[in-house]
Amino acid sequence: MATKVKNLKGTEDQKCTCCDSWLDHWINKTGTKSPECAACSKKADVGGHVKKVDSTDGTHYIVPLCYSHNSTDDEFTAYGELVPAAKQSTCRVQSSAM
Ligand SMILES: [Zn+2]
Ligand SMILES: [Zn+2]
User: Fold this and answer.
1) Using one digit for the tens of pLDDT, what is the confidence trace for 59-72?
2) Ligand 2 ion: residues within 5 Å (CB)
3) Which of 63, 70, 77, 51 lies closest to 25 in space, CA to CA?
4) What is the whole-number distance in angstroms between the Cα of residue 38 and the centre of ligand 2?
């Protein structure tokens, strides 16, 4: 699955309400233990906020990113799963059950 996305700016202060970090949030949702950057397949450092380009879908998604891709302003193609950013504590039960 390849999705054209763009980094969302001004999300640095947003904390995941259900997980320790946005990267953990992505891991909890996908069950992937060693996430790779969605753009370049290097080891992911952070969970980045993105939204889809060429889509009316305004949902904010989390994808695992390396530091350099987390700071890019350019559109890029994200491979792998896009996990919606949590608005409520949606992961707690699932992650503690693992
Ligand atoms: Zn979460
Ligand atoms: Zn990268």
Assistant:
1) 999 999 999 999 99
2) 37, 39-40, 66, 69
3) 63
4) 7
Q: Evaluate whether 28 touches 55 at the Cβ level (below 8 Å).
A: no
Give the confidence band of 1 by pLDDT, cuts at 50, 70, 90.
confident
CA-wise closest residue to 72 among 11, 1, 9, 3: 9
Give the mean pLDDT of 69-83.
Answer: 94
Segments making up each domain of the chain, as ranges = 2-90
* Spacing, Cα 35 to ligand 2 middle (Å): 11
Closest CA to 46 of 59, 61, 36, 33: 36
- DSSP 8-state class, residue 8: P
Q: Write out pLDDT tens, residues 3-56.
A: 999 999 887 778 888 888 999 999 999 999 999 999 999 999 999 999 999 899
Sign of the CA dihedral 39, 70, 30, 51? negative
Among all bound ligands, the one having the nearest atom to the CA of 46 is 2
